[in-house]
Fold this sequence. Notes:
Elements: H1 2-21, H2 24-29, H3 32-35, E1 58-59, H4 74-80, E2 102-111, E3 122-131, E4 152-156, H5 164-180, E5 185-189, H6 207-217, H7 227-249, H8 258-272, E6 277-282, H9 284-295, E7 300-306, H10 311-314, H11 319-322, H12 328-343, H13 361-377, E8 380-384, E9 388-392, H14 394-405, H15 411-422, H16 427-437, H17 455-463, H18 474-486, H19 491-498, H20 501-507, E10 527-534, H21 540-550, E11 554-562, H22 571-583, E12 591-595, H23 605-614
Helix pairs in contact: 7-20, 8-9, 17-20, 18-19
Bound molecules: 2-acetamido-2-deoxy-beta-D-glucopyranose (9 copies).
Amino acid sequence: MAVHHRLxxxxxxxxxxxxxxxxxxxxxxxxxxxxxxHKSKQSPYGRFPRFNDAFHFVPCTNTSVLPDLDDANPEKxxxxxxxxxxxxxxxxxxxxxxxxxxxxxxxxxxxxxxxxASDQRIVRLAVTKYQVSGLARTGSPPTKSGQKSARTLxxxxxxxxxxxxxxxxxxxxxxxxxxSFGQYDVLGWDPRGVNASLPSVSCFPYDSxxxxxxxxxxxxxxxxxxxxxxxxxxxxxxEAVLNACREKYGDFARFVSTAFVARDMEEIRKALxxxxxxxxxxxxxxxxxxxYANMFPESVGRIVMDGMEYVRDHRLLGGFGWTALDxxxxxxxxxxxxxxxxxxxxxxxxxxxxxxxxxSVDSLEKRMTSLISSLLSRPxxxxxxxxxxxxxxxxxxxxxxYMSMYNAFTWPELAQLLSDLEDGNSTxxxxxxxxxxxxxxxxxxxxxxxxxxxxxxxxxxxxxYDAPQPENLDWWGDLWHNMTTQNxxxxxSRFFDVLPCRQFKxxxxxxxxxxxxxxxHTLKHPVLLISETYxxxxxxxxxxxxxxxxxxxxxxxxxxxxxxxxxxSSNCTDDIARTYLLHGRLPEEQETNCYANEKPYRYKLSSSxxxxxxxxxxxxxx
Length: 622
Ligand SMILES: *[C@@H]1O[C@H](CO)[C@@H](O)[C@H](O)[C@H]1NC(C)=O
Ligand SMILES: *[C@@H]1O[C@H](CO)[C@@H](O)[C@H](O)[C@H]1NC(C)=O
Ligand SMILES: *[C@@H]1O[C@H](CO)[C@@H](O)[C@H](O)[C@H]1NC(C)=O
Ligand SMILES: *[C@@H]1O[C@H](CO)[C@@H](O)[C@H](O)[C@H]1NC(C)=O
Ligand SMILES: *[C@@H]1O[C@H](CO)[C@@H](O)[C@H](O)[C@H]1NC(C)=O
Ligand SMILES: *[C@@H]1O[C@H](CO)[C@@H](O)[C@H](O)[C@H]1NC(C)=O
Ligand SMILES: *[C@@H]1O[C@H](CO)[C@@H](O)[C@H](O)[C@H]1NC(C)=O
Ligand SMILES: *[C@@H]1O[C@H](CO)[C@@H](O)[C@H](O)[C@H]1NC(C)=O
Ligand SMILES: CC(=O)N[C@H]1CO[C@H](CO)[C@@H](O)[C@@H]1O
């Protein structure tokens, strides 16, 4: 969230800076004379929203907030938020004279229940589009400027629960460059229940309440003196949280399944007036993509999925959790530790020998294991100026390690922090935990809405609703044991994602729609899958199984690199994705191997920038 604000404000500040710096002709069109026309709602670029625009787009400002669901005339309320003064708009970073792109904000109203025409309720989806050609000035001769691109790259960052509008703010300019040489507009939306879309699901009235709660709930199995009683506590807490969701949102949980999200994406395609869909879908977004492609095979244009899920697993009880467990410990061993030693002590603090012994991957792994397990009997203590006293627990440290496996760009930092902790200095780890773990920051003003955190659980549990469920907790206790034994890094975190499903069924009727068909429909155009060898959340095995089922309706890049999705950049992967998105051409072979350009601990600045941009999707669910 902090990251989003930084970039958002960056845009505003850049716009002010440009105003001061630009020469005369540009100043003319944003001169104070033009700026005073607030009442007429005229701008040098005309009026917004444009006539007949299904998304009601207006240039984004820092005050673009969607009209409430109970607003009797939302279009009018929205139109009145239009600020005709272009200095308040969010322009792209590029030179203001050379085809400035612009961020447009809008919304799409869709049925809450697609399966019941007599249910009048709607969801209002927040949409942010980066239009690469910028805007055309009123009265200027028609050019490409101000027009939508031939295809629009629809993006989705995953989750479930990730915000597509935030993703657009962070990444649209990079993505259009990387994936289309700047040819395509980029559109992100907040899925139903998420962030700025309405309703937005937060079952806690304030983020601080959720923080408190998570302190109790996030306890790892290894630290519990009695796993059974710890499980009973976690289960009761889940019941309380889901019950709060039902109190606050009624039957909404019946309408958030991935099948409905796929229908929303089809409505977005129609609103764009494009014959078929062009998209870049990441992580859980690939689950939306697989479902979409098989529900709407005739609408499949050029769809790239990156960080592969296999949605058949999500139909099974706990599947969303256990399907993720294959490779995070490989990433730790071969990547975090192995590449550390390859890079050497100048790049990685842990490569420094602490005794006369030569450091090997195995000896380093032993040292780390004993450091981490030492926290089982007693947490380490720390201090931060912001929070005061702090504890470094076994559970919180492993949470941090798991998060870091998502993005190899963070590894030097993690190595330094573990090395310091080993030497008895907890300053860095306390600071990292403080910034990663808590949402509420008492020094910041209270945000207008709490985060839509609980939406993710509702989607995961809706998608596995019809799986047979054991009555008692024993099966779940077994699953917890199995998952944490298989994977000490991801096992607990992934188990906590699925345990709430035990309670979901007691609180809601069946979801209005679940897609249960095959995944091998014949598509209008084949899709491109990108699946990573060391992905800590979406293992290569998932991509392979989907590819086997889809056959010639898909091709796959096996991306040899670290981290979640293809953020460990590879020119080979990018070239294949771009050729496909721009020209519709795919490799002949089912699988193509691509290798990351660089190695962890040795990234150059250019790719570090890309990495930090994508660090946004670093949440535990993604
Ligand atoms: C929006 O940005 C303007 C500066 O462009 C600032 O004066 C105003 O306070 C901001 N409004 C909000 C709600 O942040
Ligand atoms: C359809 O919606 C109507 C109006 O809200 C409601 O009364 C009815 O129960 C719904 N039917 C189903 C099958 O959900
Ligand atoms: C990504 O965007 C940032 C900020 O606009 C820019 O500095 C960087 O060069 C971009 N990277 C790519 C690969 O386009
Ligand atoms: C990922 O996990 C699978 C299944 O456990 C294993 O066969 C494969 O070797 C692992 N990949 C890597 C790169 O270690
Ligand atoms: C602990 O680490 C911090 C951060 O690197 C450093 O500023 C501090 O001096 C260290 N403390 C001691 C006692 O070495
Ligand atoms: C746990 O693992 C055991 C041994 O592989 C297996 O028999 C059992 O079905 C698993 N239980 C669950 C709930 O996954
Ligand atoms: C899809 O796979 C199923 C088996 O799972 C098979 O019966 C069906 O014929 C396949 N459909 C197509 C279009 O290949
Ligand atoms: C990847 O492409 C960039 C931009 O074209 C180039 O500068 C870089 O050298 C390439 N890297 C590799 C490893 O091919
Ligand atoms: C309305 C709302 O909740 N908006 C949030 C969407 O997500 C971004 C990034 O997390 C927040 O900054 C917004 O406040």
